[in-house]
Write a structure and sequence with these properties.
The complex is a heterotrimer of chains A (127), B (510) and C (450).
Chain A (H helix, E strand, L loop, with lengths): L10 E3 L3 E6 L2 E6 L1 H7 L2 E5 L6 E2 L4 E7 L3 E5 L4 E6 L9 H4 L8 E5 L11 H7 L1
Antiparallel strand pairs in A: 1-2, 2-3, 3-9, 4-6, 5-8, 6-7, 8-9
Chain B lengths: L1 H5 L42 H4 L17 H12 L23 H6 L2 H4 L11 H18 L3 E3 L5 H18 L6 E5 L5 H8 L3 E5 L9 H7 L4 E6 L12 H10 L3 E5 L12 H4 L3 E3 L20 E3 L11 E7 L2 E7 L16 H41 L15 E4 L1 H7 L3 H10 L6 E2 L8 E4 L7 H20 L2 H4 L12 H6 L8
Parallel strand pairs in B: 2-3, 2-4, 4-5, 5-6
Antiparallel strand pairs in B: 1-7, 6-7, 8-9, 10-12, 11-12
Chain C lengths: L1 H4 L29 H12 L9 E2 L12 H7 L2 H4 L11 H18 L3 E2 L6 H16 L3 E5 L4 H14 L2 E5 L1 E2 L2 E2 L1 H7 L4 E8 L9 H9 L4 E6 L10 H4 L3 E5 L15 E5 L12 E5 L5 E5 L6 H4 L12 H38 L4 E3 L8 E6 L3 H14 L2 E2 L2 E2 L10 E5 L6 H27 L1
Parallel strand pairs in C: 1-15, 3-4, 3-7, 7-8, 8-9
Antiparallel strand pairs in C: 2-10, 5-6, 9-10, 11-12, 13-14, 14-17, 16-17
Helix pairs in contact in C: 3-12, 5-12, 6-7, 12-14, 13-14
The chains are: A alpha+beta (127), B alpha/beta (510), C alpha/beta (450).
Amino acid sequence: MADASYPTDLLYHPEHDWARIDGDHATLGITWFAQDALGEVVFFDPPEVGATTAAGESYAEVESVKAVSDVIAPLSGEIVEVNAELSDSPEAINEDPYGAGWLVRIRLSDVSETASLLDAASYESSL
Amino acid sequence: MSARLEEIPITSAGATPMQRDPAVTIFEKGAAGRRAFHCPEPGVPARDPDELLPRHLRRREPARLPEVSEPELVRHYVRLSRRNFDLDSGFYPLGSCTMKHNPRLHERVAALPGHARLHPLQDPRRAQGALELMWNLERALAEIAGLPHVVLQPSAGSHGELAGVLLTRAYHESRGERRTKVLTPDTAHGTNPATVTMAGYEVVKVGTNPDGGVDLEDLRAHVDDQVACLMLTNPNTLGVFDTNIEEIARLVHDAGATLYYDGANLNAVMGKSRPGDMGFDIVHYNLHKSFTQPHGGGGPGAGPIAVSDRIEPFVPHPVVTCTQTPDGPVFGLDDDRPQSIGRLRGFQGNYGVFVRSYAYIRSLGAEGLRDVSETAVLNANYLLARLRELVGDALPLAFGERCMHEFVLSGAPMKKELGIRTLDLAKRLLDHGFHPPTVYFPLLVDEALLIEPTETETKETLDAFAEAIAAIVAEAREDPNIALGAPYTTPVRRLDEAAAAKHPVIRQAR
Amino acid sequence: MLAAIGVSSVEELFAAIPDGVRLRRDLDLPPGMPEQDVYEHLLSLARRNTCAEDEVTFLGAGMYDHYVPAVIDMLLGRSEFLTPYTPYQPEISQGGLQVMFEYQTAISELTALPVSNASVYEGPSAVGAAGYLAKLANGRRRFVVSRGLHPHSRETLRTLSHGYGTEVVEVPLRDGVTDQEAWAAAIDDETAAVFLQQPNFLGAVEDAHALAQAAKASGAVVVGSYDPIPLAILAPPGDCGVDVAVGEGQSLGNRLDFGGPSFGFFAATEAYLRRMPGRIAGETHDVDGRRGFVLTLQTREQHIRREKATSNICTAQALNALAGVVYLSWLGREGIVELAELLLQRTAYAREALCAVEGVAALHEQPVVREFAVQLDVGGLEGVRRVIDRCQDAGVNPGYALGRDLDEHPTGLLVAITEQRTREQIDRLAGMLGAAIAAERAGEREEVRA
C-alpha cells in the first residue's frame, strides 16, 4: 500500500475522488483516503464506454471483501475509456490509486466545472 | 509463543479438539464404478429408451457426480463434521441469533412417519393431525405476540419480513393510497432494508437517540403520508427496550402507516410484553431463534407472521381453517381468499420446523416461556456485569446501563489502547473453545461486539466466557501480536477472504 | 447473580417496559408437559395423517415419495451438522463450508452451469428470486411465463413481482407443451425474463433449447425450473442456452414433511455470478497455506449491501442442501442415470397401463420421464375427487386432481412414479382406478335418473 499522498497536479472532489485534467478530457479515480478506508479492493464494476457521468453522482462501484462503495464523478462528461487492467488486478486501486489504479477517462461536457473542485491542500485539510 | 499456546486452558465450556486433516472434497475421492446406491430392477417390459425420450432431448454427457462406496461416503462426511464447531459442543453467544439448546425430543417427533412422510397435497381430510398441529401452533404464536391472525408460510425471518411489507402494500392499495417509503432505524438488521427494496419501496433511515431508542424528533420529521410502514424490533439490536414505543406507535398510526415488528429479539419478552399490545400491526417470528428449530449451519428455519384484523384479508394463502362440527373440530386449508397477496412459496411452509416449535411450546407451557425470557434477560445482565467488572474499560457497554437479552460492547477503546480489534478478540476466542459473539453489527457502534447468551447457559459457562475475554485482553496488554495472529488451534487459521472474492473459485475444478 | 448485577429481583431487569404494554396475566397457553407426554401428543397427531407408509401413493405435483437412504438420517442428526450457525467464523466452520462447496459443485455438474449458490428456500420461491435477479439486471417491465410452470411457482412470481412492479404474462400450453408460436410472439425488448419448467407441470418434456433460443434475440434472461432427477438424462440447462436454472430439491434426499423444509437450487452462467442471491462458499487458503473455504462475494448480500442486496435471504436451507449433496453422492455418477432410466421405463409402462383402462385417456402424448397426465371420464373436478377418495379408501392414492389448479383440465389426473412404485403397485392402481371410475359413473347415472 502506498503512503498517504495527494498529488498537487490533480483536482479533488470531497467524496474522495480525483481528476487529472488534460485539455477537454479528464482521467478519474479514487483517492488514497478512499482506498485506505475500503481495505483491499477485490472488484471494480466498470461503466460502459459511451455512458455519461454527472458531477456529484455515482458512476460505478468499488468492492472490498466487507464493503461496497459508490464512486462519485467529480465532473460531467462521456466515458471514452475504462481501465480494463482492473478486472484482473483490482488491487492496483490500492497500490497506485493515482497511476495504474485509474478508473475511467471522460470527455468533459463542461470544463468550467473544474473550478468547483478542490486543490490538493484543500482536500487534504478537509480529511 | 508456542509456550503460551500450551497454556491455553480447554475449559468445560470449550469445544472438543477438531480434526485438522487437509481439505479433500468428495469429488477428489472414490474411483470409477464405485457407488452406494443399489438400483432396483425396473420390473416392467423394457422399451427402447430412445423411443421414450428422443435423442435431441437427451443429455449427451453424464453429470460428473462422485463415485464412492457407502463406507467412503460415511467416513468423508463424518470426518468433515468434526471440522465444525457446534452448539451441542460449546457456547455460542451470537447476538441476534438466539443460540439456545435444541432439545432432541424434537428430532424424534419430527421423524415420525405420520409427520415426515406426509405429502403436502394430501387430501386435508386425511391430514387432520398436521392441520391441527398448524392450527394449535398458530393459536399459541398469536397468544405470544398478542395479534390474532397467524400464517406459518414464510420460510425464514427475511421471508416473513417480505410478507409483512407486501401486506402493507396491499393494505394501502386497498384504501386507494400510493405510498412510497418505508422507515427503518439505523440499527436495523440488513434484511430489513433489503426486503424493503424487494417490495418496491424506498428505504429511509431513522436515527437513534443517546439512550439507544428511536430518535423521536427524527421520526416526527420523516413520518408523512408517503410513509407506508415503520419496521422495528423491540428490544432492538442494541439490546435496549424502547420505552417510547407507545408514542412511536401513535405517531405511525396517526400518519396512516403500519408498524412492523421484526421478531428476532422475541426471546427477551415472552410472557412479559407482547408486540400486539405495543401497537404493532404485523409481527414475524423466527422459529429457528426463540423456538429452538436447530440452525443447521444456515437453515432451515421458518418466519411465520401474525397480523391485526385490518391486515388479515391480505395474508398469503392457503390459510388453515377450523370448523366446529358435532363430531369435533375439522381442519382445512382455504385457498379462496380474494384479497390475498397470493403466495410466497410452494405448499404450506416448513412443516418439519412447525413440528419442532410446537413440541417446544407444549413442553414449556405458559410459565416455561415466561421463564425463558426472564432467564435470558438475567443471563445477559449477569454476563454484562461480569464483563464490566473484568474488562469494562477496554470494552465498554455502547448504550444505557442495563440490557435485555443481549448487549453491545464497543471494542474502540481496546483498539486504541491495546492495538487489537474486535476481530482479533474474536479470533483469539476460538483458541479458547468459544464461538465468538456477533462482530461489527449493529453498524452504529464502532468495533461492535453483540453478545446474547440465551437462557440455556449455566452461570459456570458465563463465568468461563467472561474470564476468557479477560484473559485475552490481559494477554494483549503484554503482547498484542498473539491475538493479531490468532487462531492457532483450529483446523485452519485465518483465511484469505480477499483472494476468494477477487478470483472466486466456487466449485471443484473439473 | 442478582447481586453481581446490582438488583434485588429479576423483575427490576424489566423496568424499561412501560406499564401500558406490560403483560399482567399469564399467557393463555396450556401448561408445560414432561417429554413423554409431549411425545404421546405428537404421536397422536401423527396417527391422524395418512402418510406414504399408510397408502401406496402416486401423488407428486412438485414433491415426490423417493426413498431417503439411512445415511442421511444419521448425518443430519449429527450435532456438528444440526446445531451450528451460519459459518461466519470460517476457521471453525470448515465442515459446513466444504459441504456448501461440494453441494455447489454437484449442482453445477447437474445443471451444466458454472455458478451455483449454497441453496435457497425451495422451488417456487427460487423462481421468484430468479425474477428479481432479472429485474435488477435489466430493469425491464415484463415476465413471460409458460403455463407449464407449477401453479405455485407462477403464483409466487406474481406475488413477488407485484412488489417491485413487473408485469407477468402467461403463455398457454398446446398438446401438453409450451405453445412455441405464442411464446415467441409474447417476447419483445420489454421482456425482463422468460420462464419455462422442465419437465413441465403436466410431466411433459419441453424443447428447452428451442424455447431458450426464441428469447435470445430479445436479451431477456432465460430462466428454467428443473426437476433434478430427470436432469440425469435430460439435456441440461447449460447446454440449452438457459441463463438461470432453479428447482425444487426435495427429491434429493429430503423427506416430504408436508411440504417443507426442503431446498431450492439456483445456478447460472458466469455473467450472473455477482447477481446471485444467497450464500456462496469459495475456496481459498489460510496464512499457513492450507486449503480452506469461506463465504465469499458477501458484498451481494443483505448484511453488507443492505437495500441494494441481490436478495434479502439470510437463513436458507443448509441442512437440507447437505442432504442433497449426500444423496447425489450416494446415487453417484452412474446411479443417478440408472435411477432416471428406471423412472422413464416405469412411467411409460404406467401411462400405457392406465390409458388401457376404461374411462382413462392420455391428456397429452409428449415424452414423459417421471410423471404424466390423464383425463378421467367423469363429471368434473368433483367426480375426480370422488374417484381419488374411493381409491384412497382402498389404500392407493392415484395422484393429483389437476382441476384443483387448472380450469382447462377439470377432469385431469397427474400421476407420479418413483423408484418405490413397483410394477405390481402400478397394476393395482390401474385396476383400482378402473373400478373407481366405473363406480363413479354408475353413481352419476343414478343421479341423472333420480
